[in-house]
Amino acid sequence: MSAGRILVVDDEPQIRRIMRTTLTGAGYEVDDAKTGEEALAKLRDFRPELVLLDINMPGMGGLAACRAMRADPNVAIIMLTVHNTEAAKVEALDAGADDFVSKPFSTPELLARIRAALRRVPVSQSSPSRIRVGELTIDFGARTVTRGETASHLTPKELDLLRYLTQHANEAVPHRELLQAVWGPDYGDQVDYLRAFIKSLRKKIELNPDRPKYVTTEPWIGYRFNGAVESS
Amino acid sequence: MSAGRILVVDDEPQIRRIMRTTLTGAGYEVDDAKTGEEALAKLRDFRPELVLLDINMPGMGGLAACRAMRADPNVAIIMLTVHNTEAAKVEALDAGADDFVSKPFSTPELLARIRAALRRVPVSQSSPSRIRVGELTIDFGARTVTRGETASHLTPKELDLLRYLTQHANEAVPHRELLQAVWGPDYGDQVDYLRAFIKSLRKKIELNPDRPKYVTTEPWIGYRFNGAVESS
DNA sequence: CCGATCTTCATGACTTTTTCATGGTTTGTC
DNA sequence: GACAAACCATGAAAAAGTCATGAAGATCGG
Fold this sequence. Notes:
2 copies of one chain form a homodimer.
Chain A: E1 5-9, H1 13-25, E2 29-33, H2 36-46, E3 50-54, H3 62-69, E4 76-81, H4 86-94, E5 99-102, H5 107-120, E6 130-133, E7 136-139, E8 144-147, E9 150-153, H6 156-167, E10 173-174, H7 175-182, H8 191-205, E11 215-218, E12 222-225, E13 230-231
Parallel strand pairs in A: 1-2, 1-3, 3-4, 4-5
Antiparallel strand pairs in A: 6-7, 6-13, 7-8, 8-9, 10-12, 11-12
Helix pairs in contact in A: 2-3, 6-8
Chain B binds a DNA duplex through helix 6 and helix 8.
């Protein structure tokens, strides 16, 4: 098992290559992105625990990307830049970054700051790939859910939805938050998507979908996953 | 209400004084300690959300104090030192510090780092999600209120109203203030909304809604929530 | 082309919010 | 005390919004 997943966001290929080597050598799983837009997409797919984010990037700048990512509390953000000015630091930190490192940086210091930041990520410590809750077994690796004897295959969106709900078990998760977590930041209003998928989710995990037990609706707010989640 | 409690740990009186002035000015509640031992004691009594910890101190050093404090995940630690070496930074961060600032530091940067670190402290996060008052339990996460055995579901407006009232418990909150807090700044005059919702609130939380005990009306002013609110 | 998945939409049942009319209460003035 | 004016509680109904559902179209990879 890796020490964690890290997403490197920088427009310079050379930096990405160096970072990848360094971090992989330190035991992390690494993916990279060239732009802020790409980073936001990979945030959903790769699910990093930490993002190393360059401030100076063409298109959506690092600060804008940082603000967009901050919506998810389950990821730490360390910003990087060549500008070692006080104003830059304050701006980055107030955009939601957890830490700030100026280039050129020393590798040991960067690694130490990464370790420190990862300690604070709530879920992290790598989410287990299989969990049990009540008579349910959800296998995120195999993309299946088993209730009693019957196993069902979960489609990608169903899986993402279920994952986010179980990660926030026993709290009412707002529509908007769910939509943004599963579909991306631009889809906060497409409540219909949610309803359609909640329906098919329930068909697969609930004993009788008319009176849901695990995925209940929280009227006017969103949905909620009920049950004591234990890794398995 | 303060922005948070901060404990300043440094053996030089002058630093403590400057820090206290700066942080108090930024809206924080401040206490200080001269030694690591004293800091550990104040950690229990003062319950700071964040500790500013000097590395160089006589007696128990800053690093040892940091390691001891790290047992409590509900406090952020920022270490300070004049030694701006890489080794010092790595050592501090691996001792459990969340961040590292070298002296002399810029005040805006320090404040920004404090804000960033406070975002990560789990508990603090201002208002608790569950409170008890008398025979009432209000769960803002689950959006329910429980009186004795009976639990009721709260609609969004009811919840917002109750939240604002409990946050200002034992004071008369004017109509206008309540309306603006719950409905928005343009609704200061819609006293009818208030009356309708106060009524349904009372139906859910009062034993007999005719003689309200928790939500009483403050004639000619507004409403008031009575009772000792304790987080739970 | 086929099948699986995702998106879009219309429908009726349901809940919350808004609006309003009624009658009772308090306050202040004569 | 009588009275008007402003306030308050209540119940009921209209308006607006939300939910589950089924089904049809769009998209994508093989």
